[in-house]
Specification:
L-fuculose-1-phosphate Aldolase; about 250 residues; alpha+beta; seven-stranded mixed β-sheet
Length: about 250
């Protein structure tokens, strides 16, 4: 085996469990139709300061991504876009900026899912606490109201700067979509799943034209804190997804 091939194999085998978790999240996101064509991206930091990260390869459909496909990228490498396995320019602009500047964002998941994007398209993009799921996000999201075009480097840097408060794990990207951050793939994917569910409930409630039953700030905050401490279901969520994919004979973990 040549030195270059051996090095490629070594890179593709590094951080294997993280690769498997991320590949499972890609597959399930596609199954739930939360992605958009080949335009969305997930990333996961693998070093201490968060600047080296795994990310999906350019223009590969979420439903086909395997653990060994994931790119290992250095957010501080200015030659990233000139390499043979260069990521999508917008993925580099957005995720590279986040991992360069936001060490608390170990995992970042960006999608243009239907209901989150509908919410992001409203003049008032706030998510009121109308049910238990929406309480998860009470006072825990950012609304970006200054969309500036494709998330190339300048736009990516601007978006990353909005994640200055570590308690805010969701960015409702006005006129664009949603960005979810977290410590692990399991935590971040679970948050992505529940944000889309909460957004769907809210949008469908608005469609009835009837008055909403909005919870008090006190109850919403109490519920949010209780759910922050209730972490086991999030871990089990990803574990069950991987079990289902494995039982189906999926090649996600290859």
């Amino acid at each position: 085996m040549s030195a270059s091939v051996d090095n490629l194999v070594r890179l593709n085998m590094s951080h294997w469990q993280e690769r498997v978790d991320l590949a499972a999240a890609f597959r399930w996101t596609a199954r739930l139709n939360l992605h958009e064509a080949v335009a969305n991206h997930f990333s996961l930091s693998v070093n201490e300061d968060g600047t080296q990260f795994l990310m999906n390869p350019d223009k590969k459909h979420f439903s086909r991504i395997k653990a060994s496909d994931l790119l290992l990228i250095d957010a501080n490498d200015p030659e990233t876009l000139s390499g043979p396995n260069a990521p999508d320019e917008t993925a580099w602009g957005l995720h590279g900026s986040i991992h360069r500047h936001c060490s608390h964002a170990r995992c970042a998941m960006h999608v243009h899912s239907i209901f989150a994007t509908v919410l992001a398209s409203l003049e008032d993009s706030r998510l009121p606490p109308i049910d238990q799921n929406s309480c998860i996000f009470f006072n825990r999201y950012i609304i970006d109201e200054n969309y500036g075009g494709l998330a190339l480097e300048e736009e990516g840097e601007r978006c990353a700067s909005l994640f200055s408060d570590p308690s805010k794990k969701v960015m409702i990207m006005g006129n664009h979509g949603v960005m979810i951050i977290g410590d692990t793939v399991a935590e971040t994917f679970d948050r992505l799943y529940y944000f889309e569910r909460a957004a769907e409930t809210y949008i469908r409630a608005l469609q009835t034209g009837m008055k909403l039953r909005v919870l008090s700030d006190e109850i919403a905050e109490k519920t949010a804190k209780e759910l922050e401490e209730y972490t086991e279901p999030g871990k089990a969520h990803l574990a069950e997804i991987k079990a289902i994919l494995t039982e189906e004979g999926s090649d996600f973990a290859s």
